[in-house]
Amino acid sequence: MSARGLTALEARITGCRRCPRLVEWRERVAREKRASFADEEYWGRPVPGFGDPRARVFILGLAPAAHGGNRTGRVFTGDRSGDWLFASMHRNGFANQALSVSADDGLELHDAWVAAAVRCAPPANKPLPAERDNCLPYAREELDLMPQVRVIVCLGAFAWEAACRLYGVRPRPKFGHGAEFALTDGKRVLLGCFHPSQQNTFTGKLTEPMMDAIFGRARALANVRVRA
Fold first, then answer.
1. Is the pLDDT of residue 228 over 60?
2. Residue 16: how many CB atoms within 10 A of its CB?
3. Can you give the pLDDT at residue 3?
4. How many domains does the chain have?
5. Helix (H, G, I), strand (E, B) or coil at 175
6. Has residue 227 been placed in a domain?
7. Which band of pLDDT confidence, cut at 50, 70 and 90, is reported for residue 94?
8. Is 192 part of any domain?
9. If DSSP codes are grouped into helix, strand and coil, which group holds residue 31?
10. Which domain holds residue 210?
11. Does residue 149 come out as left (phi exceeding 0), alpha (psi in the -120 to 50 range) or beta?
């Protein structure tokens, strides 16, 4: 049931045109392209979530990159942030490979689902509050369709804030790498992780061991066994 529901939700997400500023930007980027991808056809639409419908760990990011997910059509795919994310997930048994370059590269996730708080690439990677609020119901529907989710890994303060808004958490707990907050339903935990942006990875604010520790903790909290 959840797989069919998620497929129907994906169709609604990819057809969304609710935010005029985001629609204009994502489509302009898809037309103008980056020189290194000039021969590629860009996706240029909202980017749906991706992963295992039976996931117990839900990873929430900020938004698709203009020349990453907005180009490839898969979240965290085709950019440096995705390289870091899926490599760590692979090392921790959540992905069958570390490679994440295109929607048909064979990547499969196990016990994990990856999505973004905002599904369209925003100018300067900065969605407006109204755009975030327009998009958050999609994450809510995904989570409702996956009641087995036990951990929501929030990549960055924006995702942490978005998750708190989803669940009406007040006062909002402070975000930090490794921060944990048990939701009042008693079933799910928010787990903070620095976003794997180049700003964080190039400066050493986020290292591979730090990110691996988050996914190890997520596995423990969600009681997910390492696959043989």
1. no
2. 17
3. 87
4. 1
5. coil
6. no
7. very high
8. yes
9. helix
10. 2-222
11. beta
User: Does residue 101 belong to any structural domain of this protein?
Assistant: yes
Q: Give the CA count within 13 Å in the CB-facing half-sphere of 203.
A: 8
Residue 73, domain CATH:
3.40.470.10
Is residue 48 within 8 A of residue 73, CB to CB? The reply is no
**Inter-residue contact 201 to 77 (CB < 8 Å):** no
Residue 47 lies in a domain: yes
Q: Distance (Å, rounded) from C-alpha 97 to C-alpha 105?
A: 10
Average pLDDT, the chain: 96
Q: In this structure, what token pair is assigned to residue 15?
A: 């057809």
Given strand 57-61, what is the order of strands in its sheet? 50-51, 112-116, 57-61, 151-155, 189-193, 180-182
pLDDT in tens, 30-84: 999 999 999 999 999 999 999 999 999 999 999 999 999 999 999 999 999 999 9
**Residues across the chain:** 228
How many angstroms separate the CA atoms of 47 and 45, rounded? 6
